[in-house]
Specification:
Elements (H helix, E strand, L loop, with lengths): L8 E2 L9 E5 L1 H14 L1 E4 L5 E3 L1 E5 L9 E7 L2 E3 L5 E11 L5 E4 L22 E2 L4 E6 L3 E10 L6 E2 L13 E6 L3 E5 L2 E3 L4 E6 L12 E3 L2 E3 L4 E9 L2 E3 L2 E3 L14 E5 L7 E7 L2 E3 L6 E3 L5 E7 L2 E3 L6 E2 L4 E6 L2 E3 L18 E3 L2 E3 L27 E3 L2 E4 L5 E2 L7 E3 L2 E4 L4 E2 L3 E3 L3 E4 L7 E2 L7 E2 L7 E5 L3 E5 L15
Parallel strand pairs: 1-3, 2-4, 3-8, 4-8, 6-10, 7-11, 8-12, 9-13, 11-14, 12-15, 12-16, 14-17, 15-18, 16-19, 17-20, 19-22, 20-23, 20-24, 21-24, 22-25, 23-26, 24-27, 25-28, 26-29, 27-30, 28-31, 30-32, 31-33, 32-34, 33-35, 34-37, 35-38, 36-39, 37-40, 38-41, 41-44, 42-43
Antiparallel strand pairs: 5-6, 9-10, 44-45
Length: about 500
């Protein structure tokens, strides 16, 4: 991490931390955090060290939070810092105090149980949280976090009753950034956390310029709810970041949506102008990419990388506007294209130069989500736009999407590699339909014999069969649908 030459350096050991994995270093880390909040600077953590960075106390301790029966004590919390703070992990590990309580408990430590949804109110102070986050920046001017390994020790947790609308919606993430103007996390890994790998709650900047906040070369896996939870963001950039096996191998602590990455703006927050570059989501219990609150999500572009759906769809849409995927490998069917259907603006999820397949050899589990109906791309909607994409049916069964004249396929390749394939929509730009297995092509534009009608052809298209070679077919309608080319 590049830091100013005149910046002062401190270490956790200067404040009494041991970093031996057995001593609870929360108090020492809190002293160091308080120093950095006032003075700014660089904290150099010791390579190979393991710091216990949180603790938990019963509600009898003062001061106490009115919601908690067992409340968290966080070590690395930075609030209202006006000077730059750099945390250099050097590959060290941060862990919570093992054996923490998570869920609902009475002050004596006995688990309680409530019918969901349940939100603690006056007289119901029975929530147990082990930590808000092992590193948390709130309302700070500048933060850089580099080279940390976060182990949430989920297998050591003592589980109480569920809380929230469904599951366990209780704080306990590896990292959290809230209301912080300029931040970035680099080369960090987090696993086995009860809630999220990283929770991001960025405001709309006063100058409305993209923040550039985000992650680089980070990985999050086996967290109870999400890998990345973006409850507010404006111009965030996530580079080469991976989220996988979310809400898997987490025991009973499984909270919907189980998504790799979730755009879920809360309150007055938005998720606008978000960028993902060479990121990967794979084998999550829920969607790999989730647009959870479409009305406040705008201009999301995902370039490169891959989205792999095994037990759930690789992506799920709620109508966010101008969501674009470019040069992405996509495994698995999608059930939730919104297209132009929603009243608050043109949706129309767009795809350019993407490779869409159900090839199980590309899946880490050997299984690809098929929407329960042998779908390849599932039911695309009017307004969805696919430009220079390839759709490959690589399993020995029939696959299809079923919305005639709905989506637009522009200069796409439809490849029946191992089973019969029928894609429905509007076709233009010299679409290629290729058969590499007997009777693999089931539908073509215009329904030329012996094929099923697949929709209108707005320009000539080509069909290549095993026995007949490559044949050119004429357009079936004149003119082109009104739709701009994707930005890919």
């Amino acid at each position: 991490m590049r830091t100013p030459l005149d910046t002062q350096y401190v270490t956790p050991e200067q404040f009494g931390a041991k970093g031996d994995g057995a001593t609870n270093d929360t108090a020492a880390l809190a002293l160091m955090a308080a120093y950095l909040v006032v003075n700014g600077g660089v904290a150099e953590f010791r390579a190979g060290a393991t710091y216990v960075a949180s603790d938990q106390v019963a509600r009898t301790a003062k001061p106490y939070h009115p919601k908690y029966s067992w409340q968290p004590i966080d070590g690395l919390v930075f609030k209202n810092a006006t000077k730059p703070i750099y945390l250099n992990g050097n590959g060290c590990k941060l862990i919570p105090q093992a054996g923490y309580k998570y869920g609902t408990f009475d002050p004596a430590g006995k688990p309680t149980s409530h019918r969901l949804p349940y939100w603690a109110s006056s007289g119901q102070n029975d929530v147990a949280s082990p930590f808000e986050a092992l590193i948390w920046f709130h309302n700070c001017a500048f933060a850089r976090v580099d080279g940390f390994n976060f182990d949430g020790l989920l297998s050591s947790a003592v589980l109480g009753g569920p809380y929230g609308d469904v599951g366990w919606q209780i704080p306990a993430s590896a990292m959290k950034f809230s209301d912080t103007k300029d931040w970035r996390a680099v080369n960090c890994k987090g696993w086995q956390f009860p809630l999220d790998g990283i929770l991001v709650d960025d405001p709309i900047p006063s100058d409305r310029k993209p923040s550039g906040n985000g992650t680089t070369d980070c990985e999050f896996w086996e967290c109870g709810r999400q890998g990345i939870s973006l409850v507010g963001g404006f111009g965030n950039v996530f580079l080469r970041t991976k989220c996988y096996r979310i809400a898997k191998n987490t025991g009973r602590i499984v909270s919907p949506p189980g998504a790799g990455i979730n755009l879920e703006p809360e309150g007055a927050r938005v998720c606008h102008h978000i960028r993902f570059v060479d990121c990967e989501v794979s084998d999550n219990a829920g969607p790999g990419f989730l647009d959870a609150v479409g009305a406040r999500t705008l201009d999301v572009i995902w370039t490169g990388g891959k989205l792999v759906g095994t037990s759930a769809a690789p992506m799920y849409f709620s109508g966010g506007r101008r969501i674009v995927f470019c040069n992405v490998l996509i495994l698995g069917a999608v059930d939730t294209f919104k297209g132009n259907a929603l009243p608050y603006g043109r949706g129309g999820e767009e795809f350019g130069n993407c490779y869409w397949t159900n090839d199980p050899t590309r899946s880490p589990t050997g299984y690809v989500y098929d929407s329960g109906g042998n779908k390849l791309a599932a039911n695309a909607a009017s307004g969805n736009y696919f430009w220079r994409c390839t759709f490959e049916n690589a399993v020995a069964r029939a696959s299809a999407n079923g919305n005639t004249n709905g989506p637009i396929y522009d200069a796409c390749t439809i490849l029946a590699k191992a089973g019969a394939l029928a894609m429905y929509g509007k076709f233009r730009g010299g679409t290629e339909i290729i058969e590499r297995v007997a009777n693999g092509v089931q539908a073509v534009p215009g329904g030329f014999s012996p094929y099923i009608h697949a929709g209108d052809a707005e320009s000539d298209f080509y069909v290549t069969t095993l026995t007949g070679g490559r044949r050119r077919y004429p357009a079936t309608v004149s003119g082109l649908s009104s739709y701009r080319k994707t930005t890919c």
